[in-house]
Design goal:
Layout: H1 2-8, E1 22-23, E2 28-34, E3 37-44, E4 51-59, E5 66-73, E6 85-86, E7 88-89, E8 96-103, E9 107-117, E10 120-130, H2 140-167, H3 178-216, E11 225-232, E12 235-242, H4 244-247, E13 264-269, E14 275-279, E15 282-283, E16 288-292, E17 299-308, E18 315-324, E19 344-347, E20 355-356, E21 361-364, E22 370-373, E23 387-392, E24 410-415, E25 421-424, H5 432-445, E26 477-480, E27 488-498, E28 501-511
Parallel strand pairs: 20-28
Antiparallel strand pairs: 1-25, 2-3, 3-4, 4-8, 5-6, 5-9, 7-8, 9-10, 11-12, 12-16, 13-14, 13-17, 14-19, 15-16, 17-18, 21-22, 22-23, 23-26, 24-25, 24-27, 27-28
Bound molecules: copper (II) ion (CU).
């Protein structure tokens, strides 16, 4: 009966999903103006495929009349998109709309949120990745029940066919003779063979299906990543090899650039966590990427590499760790590799990292300026993390922040055991590259034959910021929409630009259940 049991094994993926630029932090958040309406959008990703995404939209200020949600799969044309669902105003709330959407396939989706009302309409695309994280074994009791039912079905089927062959043409009250018995036994034998063949075929089908499912699993970070540092002249060059196991070394993974960079790499010194870098490796052919390391202290570093794949539009984080050697000064040698102008790093050994525990926490940068994480209520799992920061110059005056790679801030969050990593922006924690892809796809597909935009999707009235906060001058505060997925100790790196200098503030916090 082992074959039968195997055939009946159920694959239940009930752990959180992976797929955004993160590890272990599946929910998606967005802050921003959708048309004339400032909103906070939360998408709770389903735990199975197919599964339902739970969407909630909180509107600040003037209320729209209607809120619509619709999902669009990356490989489906907008003309085949399902009609949008109407969001429901939550009872007892004045500005919180919610709804559920089915995500049927494994792959990338965009969830379109559309608001309409007296002030006009607006819509935004929030990319999500629908990928199961883990395969759980079938519970033992369920296996026993299913095997029991299978046995009853098997022998029941054989008995029915045997009885039919034996007695179906027998007159009422007739006696079963030798011939009838033989017919019955023959039918039972043939049925047993057919059912066994069916079971065997079923087992093969199931195993093939399970193997396919396993290839879609994203057990944490993905794809595999090799990392090694070599010293060349005055520089330490980090070489990354992406997806050697997942794609093979011959296949060059096509990637969608995010702010013009194929990879966004974070290096975090292990243990002390007192060295941090946000770098942009350059493709050197195939799946090999190189980047010149900045003046980080030597040691072992966690490597976290955000990417968005072309084709599937899935975004993910590949991780590993790497030993960074000491750099012997050879100042006479020329630079081998020019660093990317947007590369940034921070070394803060000896600078105390403030901890947010209900009262405001202040991080002091080397130049004397201060970053305050405004006081929050104790931070709890799956509740607003209150990531609101204010940047002041050494004399305590608010400073004017400049955009850093198109955003007011880039932030990274890491749980102390490395099990949760997320890359945040003031607009949200999804892949900007995937959002840009979907914006372009929709614009292309909603054009009519003569190149004009179809009136039903008038883009002139749509928010075209592409998720980028329109840069306002005189902004000194940063808000990042986020909810911690699990309890634990977290470190947060908040990056921003003042003038042409990228700064990194560091905070700790403990998140309770
Ligand atoms: Cu970023």
């Amino acid at each position: 009966m082992n074959g039968l049991k195997l055939m009946l094994v159920l694959v239940i993926a009930v752990l959180p999903w992976l797929g955004q630029a993160h590890v272990g932090s599946p929910d998606v958040f967005h802050d921003g103006e959708v048309g004339p309406y400032p909103v906070r959008i939360t998408i709770r990703m389903p735990t199975v495929v197919p599964g339902r995404a739970e969407i909630s939209v909180r509107v600040q200020g003037t209320q729209p009349e209607k809120v619509f949600f619709s999902p669009l799969f990356a490989r489906t044309s907008i003309t085949n998109a399902p009609p949008p669902d109407l969001g429901v105003l939550i009872e007892g709330e004045t500005n919180l709309y919610s709804g559920e959407l089915w995500l049927m396939s494994v792959g990338a989706y965009t969830i379109e949120i559309k608001l309409s009302g007296l002030l006009g309409t607006g819509k935004v695309q929030i990319p999500v990745s629908s990928v199961p994280l883990s395969q759980l074994p079938m519970p033992r009791f369920l296996g026993i029940i299913l095997v029991g039912l299978g046995v009853i079905l098997f022998f029941g089927g054989v008995a029915i066919v045997a009885a039919a062959a034996r007695e179906s043409v027998l007159a009422p009250g007739g006696v079963i003779g030798k011939i009838e018995r033989r017919k019955g036994r023959l039918a039972a034998g043939i049925t047993t063979v057919i059912l066994l063949l069916g079971l065997l075929g079923g087992r093969r089908w199931w195993n093939a299906d399970e193997a396919k499912f396993r290839t879609q699993l994203r057990g944490g970070a993905w794809p595999d990543l090799k990392a090694a540092v070599r010293v060349e002249g005055t520089q330490r060059i980090l070489r990354l090899t992406l997806g050697e196991v997942a794609f093979g070394s011959a296949y060059s993974v096509p990637l969608i650039p995010d702010h013009g960079k194929l990879l966004h790499l974070f290096l975090i010194r292990e243990g002390t966590q007192d060295g941090f870098a946000h770098l942009h490796p350059v493709r050197k052919g195939g799946n090999i990427f190189d980047v010149a390391l900045p003046a980080l202290p030597p040691g072992r570093y966690k490597v976290l590499c955000d990417l968005t794949m072309e084709g599937s539009v899935l975004s993910s984080t590949a991780t590993n760790s790497v030993e960074v050697p000491t750099l012997a000064t050879q100042a006479t040698l020329a630079e081998v590799m020019k660093p990317d102008p947007d590369d940034s790093w921070a070394v803060y050994a000896g600078i105390p990292v403030p901890k947010n525990s209900g009262v405001a926490a202040v991080y002091r940068l080397l130049d004397g300026s201060q970053v305050e994480w405004k006081a929050t209520a104790p931070i709890r799992v799956r509740q607003d993390a209150g990531l609101n920061f204010e940047v002041r110059n050494p004399s305590g005056q608010p400073v004017d922040l400049s955009p850093y790679m198109g955003m007011l801030s880039h932030a990274a969050i890491l749980r102390s055991d490395g099990g949760v990593f997320s890359h945040l922006h003031p607009t949200g924690n999804y892949s900007m590259a995937a959002q840009a892809f979907f914006d372009k796809k929709l614009e292309r597909e909603t054009r009519t034959v003569d190149g004009a935009v179809a009136p039903m999707v008038d883009h002139s009235k749509m928010d075209h910021s592409g998720g980028h906060a329109k840069h306002k001058s005189g902004v000194s505060s940063i808000s990042l929409p986020y909810e911690f997925p699990t309890a634990g100790d977290y470190r947060i790196w908040v990056q921003f630009k003042v003038g042409d200098q990228v700064q990194t503030a560091v905070f700790d916090t403990t998140v309770a259940d």
